[in-house]
Design brief:
alpha+beta; two-stranded antiparallel sheet; 83 residues
């Protein structure tokens, strides 16, 4: 599940650097993302929000958390399957 480990809302950072040779230099920017919660964590939070909004019907918080993570994993697996 590589997709689930990607950041959901990454902070984008840009680091300028000069490249070139023989006196010809160009400044380019290396852009990369850092931090943020993973897609898996984000999807699990959305699933938990839906479960709680629909009435948890007396389920324990541990059960709700496990169901939320299971929903997130199922969504990620389906997204990977239909690539």
């Amino acid at each position: 599940m590589s997709r689930g480990n990607e950041p959901a809302y990454p902070a984008i950072e840009t680091q300028p650097r000069d490249i070139g040779h023989h006196g010809n230099y160009v400044t380019i920017a290396d852009t990369y993302s850092t931090g943020g919660m993973t897609l898996r964590e984000h999807y699990a939070g959305l699933a938990m929000q839906g479960l709680l909004a629909g009435g948890s019907s007396g389920q324990s918080t541990a059960t709700l958390a496990a169901c939320s993570v299971a929903c997130a994993d199922a969504l990620i697996a389906e997204l990977e399957r239909v690539k």
